[in-house]
């Protein structure tokens, strides 16, 4: 039903070596062959000045120091690799639903926590945008454990505030508002992971994601419940939007078919981003272990020493 801070902290140990967000992936990975095969980074940092050694690139010779000391010296640089990650996490009332292992909201929080720990462990900056039906909260990207803990605390706060009887009006438009805010913040070379059930996704959502994907790596993780496609027969379901409710007789094949079509339509529009925008889409079921699914979809089994 809900996440705890302890649960999210324990995910750090499970994420070590479990998967990678780096562009270079195994051939069977969902991220393999993408346009973002380059290493994003901020350039070169000067590290030291040392004597010339056979095999050194003559272009690295520091001629001023060489003339002053009468001995050849070279300037040594190291590449500063940095790809800040921003986790966009949906904690709206529509996510407070589940029939098997987790609520969708719990699975989304677990995915975000796992992503935060993984980015932190490889030395990159990580931040988050967490939104519900009423507000959007942001944790700016930093390379620190303190920032990860801020993200975890925010996830727990928003997750534990969800209640079926909450006096909250569902707001599908918050998805686009959150993404538009992200588009104003990120500029180039970010990793943006969108974790949501994509309730309210429309043409504007696609436009914002298109803008984000032009200069950043975007990954979509649609969270769904098994009941969206495995509808029980011979039962009656009560469905509500928070104000009105209706009883559905899912014993009728036509009703089950239409419900399945509605679920497929929502996922299909997001899945289309893979071909149209080059954005990897990783559907995650709330009925299974979150991290196991990510490991499988990224095509990277845990191997010692591999980032």
What is the strand and helix layout of this fold?
Blueprint: H1 5-15, E1 41-51, H2 63-69, E2 73-81, E3 85-90, H3 104-121, E4 126-131, E5 136-142, H4 145-160, H5 174-185, E6 191-196, H6 203-215, E7 217-224, E8 236-240, E9 245-249, H7 253-271, H8 273-277, E10 284-285, H9 290-297
Parallel strand pairs: 3-4, 3-6, 6-7, 7-10
Antiparallel strand pairs: 1-2, 4-5, 8-9
Any idea of the CATH class of the largest domain?
Alpha Beta
Q: What is Rg?
A: 23 Å
* CATH domain topology of the largest domain: Rossmann fold
Question: Which stretches are poorly predicted, pLDDT < 50 over at least 5 residues?
Answer: 23-42, 300-307
**Describe the biggest sheet?**
6 strands, mixed
Number of domains: 2
| Through-space gap between termini | 32 Å
Total strands: 10
Strand order of the largest sheet: 5-4-3-6-7-10
Instruction: List the secondary-structure elements in sequence, H or E.
Output: HEHEEHEEHHEHEEEHHEH
The CATH architecture category of the largest domain equals 3-Layer(aba) Sandwich
Give the fraction of residues assigned to helices. Answer: 25-40%
What labels would you give this structure?
disordered C terminus, alpha/beta, 2 domains, two-stranded antiparallel sheet, 307 residues, elongated, single chain
What do these coordinates show?
- There is one protein chain.
- The protein is an alpha/beta fold and 307 residues long.
- It contains 9 helices and 10 strands.
- The chain has helices at residues 5-15, 63-69, 104-121, 145-160, 174-185, 203-215, 253-271, 273-277, 290-297; strands at residues 41-51, 73-81, 85-90, 126-131, 136-142, 191-196, 217-224, 236-240, 245-249, 284-285.
- Helix 3 (104-121) links the parallel strand 3 and strand 4 (126-131).
